[in-house]
Design goal:
The protein is mainly α and 136 residues long. The protein is 46% helix and 9% strand.
Amino acid sequence: MAGEYYLDFKKSEQIVKSMSLVPDKAEKAVNQVLHTSGIKDAIKAITGFIPVSNRNKRHARNSNPLKGDTMNLGFRVYARGGATKNKNSFGYLAFPNDGLGKHNLIAKRFFERGGDLASTSIFNNIMTALSEAAEL
């Protein structure tokens, strides 16, 4: 399961307005940003909010725990998977907002917090790419 995150409505409106100025180049420009730097920024931001306990064990934050899939005008970030019963699995990442397990009693909301952090840079990169496409 992945947490879902969307840009706020005002930012989405600004992107649509900018895309309408260069309709023949907009989709390619936005996809290029989202599929290269956008997905990497989101994964990095989300990973930064994954909690690390003081126990002496391997932690998800330091183990490249997230994957991403690209789609047209978007991407999806989700946990690499694995059941909690499997050793070296980060099963708690499958339900990021539920606070499940005996050591994870409080919902951390790291997907949303990371999405909030990454959305500004992704938005700025998209707007820059669209303005560059308009100049060409």
